[in-house]
Amino acid sequence: MSSSFQPERDRPPALCPGDTVGIIAPAGPIQPDALEAGCATLLRMGYRPFYLPSILERDLYFAGSLERRLNELHEMFRRKEIRAILCARGGYGCNYLLPRLDLQLIRRNRKIFAGCSDVTTLLTYMCDAAGLVTFHSPMAAGDFGRPDGIDEEAWFAAIASTKGYEREFDAGEAQPLANGTAEGILYGGCLSLLCASLGTPYEIHTRGTILFMEDLNEPPYRIDRLLMQLKLAGKFKGVKGIIFGEMRRCDQRGAEDYTLQQVIERVLGDLHVPIAFGLKSGHVSSRNFTLPFGVRAKLHVGDSITLSHEPPVRKAPVKRT
After folding, report:
1. Among residues 72, 214, 218, 246, which one is catalytic?
2. Helix axis angle, 260-268 relative to 220-232, nearest 10°?
3. 214 an active-site residue?
4. pTM given for the model
5. Is 117 an active-site residue?
6. Smallest Cα–Cα separation from 76: which of 85, 68, 66, 89?
7. Element (H or E) spanning 158, and its range?
8. Nearest alpha-carbon partner for 25 in 81, 60, 83, 68
9. Which one of 74, 205, 283, 300 is the catalytic residue?
10. What is the pLDDT of residues 218-236, one digit of tens each?
């Protein structure tokens, strides 16, 4: 596979059974019960969850002060025993961290960094500025603590396997909006957060990508506005293919006789790229699907939908005893 406009990203070491997963709260405050439920799932999956006591702090609608949240993230990258960093939840607040992220520290200590929702801000910036493969995934105090909240096959394929992965989705899992086949770099996240980056030093870089977009509780006219904002900003130029998420509670309100899918086709139909709809990653009803950002991928949209990607992680170093 090849893709213009996009640099190669460094793959972090794979996560292995017995490895320690550091949990952070870079945005909104978290509930202790939700955190413990997620930790129980991580333990069942063979990992050792770890978090700092300060993770439960609150400051307005944030998980503690900016200093606390920033230091927590840096500390997890700094600690050698932490093999992956998993965000607890989204909410709001990751944008406060951007100007003070220590990119050199992140580059020196490359490891799995995973989350979704407001964490989109960190996923795309680390992918672009630190050159790191990042992971759009379920979160520790979210889907990890819910029954059937994780697509475990996709999780292990993204964070543990050094082989490529391919998944064919049936009509109940994803639907075609525009047929075709495309190759590019997988990239994206929560649609409203992608738009929020525009005009800032942390603006998303979408040329040469298979662009994934998802959101929650946005009616069709607002999805239209967000997509038009990206379109007018030139962010669909050079995009090779597009995948939409489940888009929970983004359907029309009231008696309107149109669908969100029709709105999307109207806005993006002139791009003439394959478009799929419904992949469960991010804000989902169940089985949250992990997507690695920064790796080469192939999307086929036709009678069925197939997504494949190259290995997002490299072989983990041998542990010293």
Report:
1. 214
2. 20
3. yes
4. 0.96
5. yes
6. 85
7. helix 152-159
8. 68
9. 283
10. 999 999 999 999 999 999 9
